[in-house]
Amino acid sequence: MVMDIVNDILDFSKITSGKMTIEAVPFDLMQVLDDVLLIMQPAAVDKGIGLEFEYPAVAPRGFLGDPVRVRQIVLNLVSNAVKFTDVGRVLLTATVSGE
Using one digit for the tens of pLDDT, what is the confidence trace for 46-93? Predict the structure, then answer.
């Protein structure tokens, strides 16, 4: 947790100074999202809520981008969803649009 805060502060410093670099590497989006759920599963279990994931079979998995930043953004969103959900479930859904 403390390390996450330190990393966020360092990232913010990089953004404001114009020194943030974004990678462009091939990555599997489904795997990145699944990793986020594995990280957040214990917190959801502790709260007694469900944590579910939907990735349509027609959705592409391979993308070119920065998987570390994508994971960081999605982890932040799912973490907040788990934090502010008291009953029920959190559902992470990937969709395809703009075909």
Answer: 999 999 999 999 999 999 998 988 998 899 999 999 999 999 999 999
15: which residues sit within 8 A by CB, 6+ positions away? none
Q: Which amino acid is at 24?
A: A
End-to-end, the C-alpha distance of the chain in Å comes to 39
Rounded to two decimals, what is the model's pTM?
A: 0.78
CB contact set of 31 (below 8 Å; sequence gap of 6+): 61
What's the Cα-to-Cα distance from 52 to each of 7, 14, 44, rounded to whole Å? Answer: 27, 33, 10
Q: What are phi and psi of 19, to 5 degrees?
A: -105, 10
Closest to 5 (Cα-Cα) out of 81, 99, 79, 62: 79
pLDDT band at 34 (very low <50, low <70, confident <90, very high): very high
